[in-house]
């Protein structure tokens, strides 16, 4: 019985001690072959985890391909590992998914991805 209570308390402590961080990312997607595909591209910010990545937030690009997304996540061990996923049909009838590298940049700093070229 003592073991069960100790295990439960330990789990509650770990959950309460989860590290929560927020990040803001900006950038622009470019589709040289078909600039119309720059507009309204899906941008997702996720926290990379071992099993299932946690969604942090999502947005769409404007008519010039620019985006800004802000999201927060918590990890029990260490800081969140946010990254950006871009869904596009640039140069393809099939949807392509482009995943950026994990960024360890948290507010007040901004993760500036600059130009992301879609038709490589």
Please give a structural write-up.
- The protein is mainly beta.
- It has a single domain, classed as Immunoglobulin-like, CATH 2.60.40.
- 12% of the residues lie in helices and 45% in strands.
- It is built from 1 helix and 7 strands; from the N terminus they run αβββββββ.
- The chain has one helix spanning 2-16; strands at 19-30, 42-47, 54-60, 66-75, 82-88, 96-99, 110-117.
- The strands form 2 sheets. Strands 3-2-5-6 form a 4-stranded antiparallel β-sheet, with no helix packed on it. A 3-stranded mixed β-sheet has the order 4-1-7, with no helix packed on it.
- A hairpin with a 7-residue loop joins strand 5 and strand 6 (96-99).
- The chain is elongated, with a radius of gyration of 18 Å.
- The mean pLDDT is 86.
- It comes from Romanomermis culicivorax.
- Residues 1-18 form the signal peptide.
- One of its GO terms (cellular component) is cell surface.
Percent of residues in helices: 10-25%
Total beta-strand segments: 7
Cα distance spanning the termini: 60 Å
Task: Just give the CATH class.
Answer: Mainly Beta
State the order of secondary-structure elements, H for helix, E for strand. Answer: HEEEEEEE
Write down the Rg: 18 Å
> For the largest beta sheet, what order do the strands appear in spatially?
3-2-5-6
Helix- and strand-based class? mainly beta
How many structural domains does the protein architecture include? Answer: 1
Number of helices: 1
- The CATH architecture is Sandwich
What is the 3D shape?
Answer: elongated
Sheet with the most strands?
A: 4 strands, antiparallel
Poorly predicted sequence stretches spanning 5 or more consecutive residues: none
User: How much strand content do the residues show?
Assistant: over 45%
Average of pLDDT: 86
What's the CATH topology name? Answer: Immunoglobulin-like
């Amino acid at each position: 019985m003592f073991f069960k209570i100790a295990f439960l308390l330990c789990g509650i402590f770990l959950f309460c001690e989860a590290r929560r961080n927020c990040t803001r990312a900006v950038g622009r997607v470019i589709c040289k072959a078909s600039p119309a595909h720059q507009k309204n591209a899906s941008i997702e910010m996720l926290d990379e985890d071992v099993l299932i990545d946690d969604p942090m937030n999502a947005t769409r690009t404007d008519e010039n391909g620019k985006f800004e997304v802000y999201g927060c996540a918590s990890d029990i061990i260490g800081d969140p590992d946010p990254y950006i996923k871009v869904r596009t049909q640039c140069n393809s009838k099939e949807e392509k998914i482009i995943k950026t590298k994990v960024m360890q940049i948290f507010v007040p700093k901004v993760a500036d991805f600059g130009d992301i070229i879609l038709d490589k």
